[in-house]
């Protein structure tokens, strides 16, 4: 019989139609559309936490590859000819039919792994539609076979195995190999033993047997038979078999770790379609940080402080190693234990002071030992106070930072500019400054703004990185490992979005020289109270650290860096309630140092000498000498254009015995002795002498030289402490309906000087030694005049706020 070409048309067309159907027919919905639980993995791949899928199933995202132990167990138990058939195995079907016929009932279906996968996907689709899966029949078998052919056509054998392992039921609401490994054995699939792998290979065949009271002995028999078969295939040794056979079955599903619940919730909120996050968290450090926070929680709860948050950054890589979002006292709901406080803006207290110091160093506004006034100060209606309510007259800039003095910091911000400082903070990565600069005012440096622990710890980490590495672009703090696939079942744009935070870089605002000098000033931070108490915190490693306490005693901060790590700690109450004893030094700092003590000791940064230059400054005040003082060498950033010459040294003339000051109207030039003298303004001098017994006031004028002083002396010996030039005074009403009285205060260089007070052309009286006068002031503009016996005059106009 001869065949013509037309004889092949019908079967050829049928084959083409079949191939087209396999190629273009839609794949089962459940392959890619099922909801997954969200996993948070540590940097070593261990599980930090997970949240259940939307359909309340513990269904984890598919693994990238199957572990060899599980794969061998599965193939030997379910489908040892898996790699040889196209989706159905005729021999297996024949054996199943024969066995069923002999048994008089269905005992085996002869299904391949591909057919079982098809059935699982079909079950998932019926469940999604709230329909009951039809009972198994010849028709259902044919549908499974057709679907198996399609799956085999569209996927590789390895992909099919992964799909099966990811959709197989493992008892209760546990779906997939990865979920089963963690729920039953507490570890990833690749770390399972032979016995554990064998159990998970046989369990989908009878998933209900895993539960206590459900003939678990039958499940163990099935596992053991498979282990014996694997031993016969020489997969492992005799000893391995003996050990595997005595391994018990798991009692019940284990609770999943909850080592970073707030981080998991935050990442899930940011990227709600991602089932797997490969974080940079170090599991050992995370556990240690949680234990330390929990230990301090009891101490703080006794002081009315119920929430702790902390995070640790490796400032070499800018990876976040620990993230304790909220350690709430006993996890009580009234303390909002689920709130991620690392991301919540809170009042910054004094934590921004080092950043202002570093900027002013870099831009030549000051040197580390430049004197900053520390005297009673008013700017408009704002009167900053130091923590100890005292005044020192003037302090070195680095001393003011180390002791967190408020008045010098406010004066520094006034000189630097509020708007300029706000812009720099935003450039550093502070995202919570959304109001105009004038709204914050000078309180910006003392907690008038809010910041997050995430932003502030990142800023300090970049400061440390800049001090170590120089003026290179620093990456933003990262929670996800840059070299890991964020989303394991690739989804294109979502994966790209999640990874962008690993590539974001920020140009260092405070460059290396200024950054290093700023950290040096923070190494010897001193705090109020017992100095010996704070020396106990020093430990064996160098740490540059700063604390902050917000106005109203609501927030306490401590942020510090050693040679490798930057740690940020916040304590307070999630609801914003104040606590009488909260402070950065007593509440947050002990946590910071306990965590640092638990970390490996590291060396401090090498001094970046190439980024520094040496200048000659006055020993007394830290300004350029101008040839008028004893000089010392001082290092400043090489980018600094510091050009401020001392204004605290004056050339004076003394008599031949160097006891009295003289001038040319009362002494011949040949009998004068010229001297350079360290002289502070009267108010600064008044408070400075209380702390510096070595300070030498200028000698008094010789009696015969006093009458011509106003013609030869340009110095103003009188200074008004209150009100000052920028004061706007508000006077409250007393209970009797009358206005309170105001205390006006002045100082004079001469401790025994006598002053005469006039207010609005009315004589108030005179004062000696302590120059204070009480006055009743009505709202409006007033003029105060003060005169001494030598005729020196000080006049000041000021306004009292209120209804005139």
Structure, described:
There is one protein chain. With 804 residues, this protein is of the alpha+beta class. The protein is 33% helix and 18% strand. The protein contains 24 helices and 28 strands. The protein has a 5-stranded antiparallel β-sheet with strand order 7-6-16-15-14, sandwiched between helices. It has a 5-stranded mixed β-sheet with strand order 22-28-27-24-25, with no helix packed on it. A 3-stranded mixed β-sheet has the order 2-1-5, with helices on one face. A hairpin with a 4-residue loop joins strand 6 (307-314) and strand 7 (319-328). Helix 12 (283-301) runs antiparallel to helix 22 (584-598) and helix 13 crosses helix 20 (512-523). The longest helix has 19 residues, at 283-301.
Which SSEs are present, and which pair or pack?
Layout: H1 9-24, E1 38-41, E2 47-51, E3 58-59, H2 68-78, H3 90-103, H4 113-128, H5 138-154, H6 157-167, E4 174-175, H7 177-185, H8 194-202, H9 216-232, H10 238-245, H11 261-270, E5 276-278, H12 283-301, E6 307-314, E7 319-328, E8 346-347, H13 353-362, E9 371-374, E10 393-396, H14 397-402, H15 406-416, H16 418-428, H17 437-440, E11 450-451, H18 453-469, E12 474-475, H19 493-499, E13 505-506, H20 512-523, H21 531-535, E14 544-549, E15 555-561, E16 565-572, H22 584-598, E17 612-618, E18 631-637, E19 649-654, E20 673-678, H23 682-688, H24 709-712, E21 718-722, E22 728-730, E23 742-748, E24 754-759, E25 762-768, E26 771-775, E27 780-788, E28 793-801
Helix pairs in contact: 2-8, 2-9, 4-5, 4-6, 8-9, 9-10, 12-22, 13-15, 13-20, 18-20
């Amino acid at each position: 019989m001869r065949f013509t070409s037309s004889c092949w048309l019908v079967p050829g067309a049928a084959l083409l139609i079949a191939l087209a159907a396999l190629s273009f027919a839609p794949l089962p919905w459940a392959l890619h559309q099922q909801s997954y639980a969200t996993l948070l993995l540590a940097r070593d791949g261990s599980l930090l936490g997970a949240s259940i899928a939307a359909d309340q199933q513990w269904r984890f995202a598919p693994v990238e590859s199957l572990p060899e132990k599980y794969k061998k167990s599965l193939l030997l138990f379910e489908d040892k000819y898996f790699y040889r058939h196209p989706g159905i195995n005729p021999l297996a079907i024949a054996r199943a039919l024969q066995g069923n016929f002999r048994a008089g009932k269905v005992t085996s279906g002869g299904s391949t792994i591909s057919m079982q996968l098809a059935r699982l996907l079909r079950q998932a689709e019926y469940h999604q539609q709230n329909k009951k899966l039809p009972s198994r029949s010849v028709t259902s078998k044919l549908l499974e076979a057709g679907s198996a052919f399609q799956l085999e056509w569209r996927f590789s054998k390895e992909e099919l195995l992964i799909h099966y392992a990811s959709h197989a039921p493992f008892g209760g609401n546990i779906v997939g190999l990865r979920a089963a490994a963690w729920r039953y054995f507490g570890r990833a699939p690749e770390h399972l033993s032979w016995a554990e792998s064998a159990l998970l290979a046989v369990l989908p065949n009878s998933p209900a047997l895993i539960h206590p009271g459900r003939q678990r002995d039958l499940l163990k028999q099935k596992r053991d038979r498979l282990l014996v078969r694997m031993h016969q295939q020489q997969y492992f040794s005799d000893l391995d078999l003996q050990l595997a056979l005595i391994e018990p079955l798991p009692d019940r599903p284990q609770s999943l770790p909850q080592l970073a619940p707030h981080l998991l919730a935050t990442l899930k909120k940011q990227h709600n379609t991602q089932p797997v996050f490969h974080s940079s968290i170090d599991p050992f450090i995370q556990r240690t940080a949680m234990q330390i926070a929990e230990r301090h929680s009891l101490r703080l709860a006794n002081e009315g402080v119920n929430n702790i948050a902390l995070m640790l950054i490796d400032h070499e890589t800018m990876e976040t190693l620990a993230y304790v979002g909220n350690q709430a006292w006993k996890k009580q709901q009234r303390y909002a234990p689920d709130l991620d406080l690392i991301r919540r803006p809170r009042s910054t207290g004094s934590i921004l002071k080092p950043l202002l110091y570093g900027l002013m160093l870099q831009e030549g506004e000051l040197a580390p030992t430049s004197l900053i006034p520390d005297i009673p100060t008013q700017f408009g209606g704002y009167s900053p106070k130091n923590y100890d309510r005292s005044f020192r007259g003037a302090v070195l800039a680095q001393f003011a930072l180390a002791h967190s003095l408020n008045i010098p910091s406010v004066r520094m911000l006034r000189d630097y500019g509020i708007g300029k400082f706000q812009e720099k903070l935003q450039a550093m990565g502070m995202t919570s400054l959304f109001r105009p600069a004038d709204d914050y005012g000078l309180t910006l440096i003392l907690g008038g703004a809010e910041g997050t622990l995430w932003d502030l710890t990142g800023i300090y980490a970049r400061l440390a990185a800049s001090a170590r590495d120089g003026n290179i672009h620093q990456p933003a703090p990262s929670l996800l490992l840059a070299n890991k696939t964020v989303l394991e079942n690739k989804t294109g744009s979502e994966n790209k979005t999640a990874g962008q935070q690993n590539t974001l870089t920020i140009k260092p605002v405070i460059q290396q020289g200024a950054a290093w000098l700023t950290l040096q000033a923070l190494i010897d931070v001193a705090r109020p109270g017992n100095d010996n108490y704070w020396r106990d915190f020093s430990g064996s490693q160098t740490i540059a650290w700063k604390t902050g306490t917000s106005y109203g005693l609501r927030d306490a901060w401590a942020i510090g860096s050693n040679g490798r790590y930057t740690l940020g700690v916040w304590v307070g109450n999630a609801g914003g309630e104040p606590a009488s004893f909260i402070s950065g030094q007593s509440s947050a700092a002990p946590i910071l140092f306990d965590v640092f003590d638990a970390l490996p000791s590291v060396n401090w940064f090498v001094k970046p000498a190439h980024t520094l230059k040496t200048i000659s400054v006055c020993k007394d005040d830290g300004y350029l000498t101008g040839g008028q003082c004893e000089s010392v060498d001082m290092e400043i950033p090489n980018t600094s254009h510091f050009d401020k010459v001392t204004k605290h040294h004056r050339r004076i003339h003394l008599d031949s015995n160097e006891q009295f000051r003289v001038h040319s109207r009362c002494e011949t030039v040949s009998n004068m002795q010229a001297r350079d003298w360290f002289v502070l303004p009267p108010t600064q001098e008044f408070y400075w002498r209380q702390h510096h017994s070595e300070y030498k006031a200028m000698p008094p004028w010789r009696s015969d030289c006093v009458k011509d002083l106003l013609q030869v002396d340009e110095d103003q010996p009188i200074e008004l402490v209150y009100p000052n030039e920028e004061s706007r005074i508000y006077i409250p009403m007393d209970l009797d309906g009358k206005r309170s009285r105001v205390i006006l205060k002045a100082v004079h260089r001469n401790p025994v000087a006598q002053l005469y007070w006039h207010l609005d052309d009315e004589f108030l009286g005179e004062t000696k030694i302590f120059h204070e006068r009480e006055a009743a002031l009505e709202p409006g503009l007033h003029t105060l005049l003060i005169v001494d016996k030598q005729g020196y005059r000080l006049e000041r106009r000021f306004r009292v706020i209120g209804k005139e």
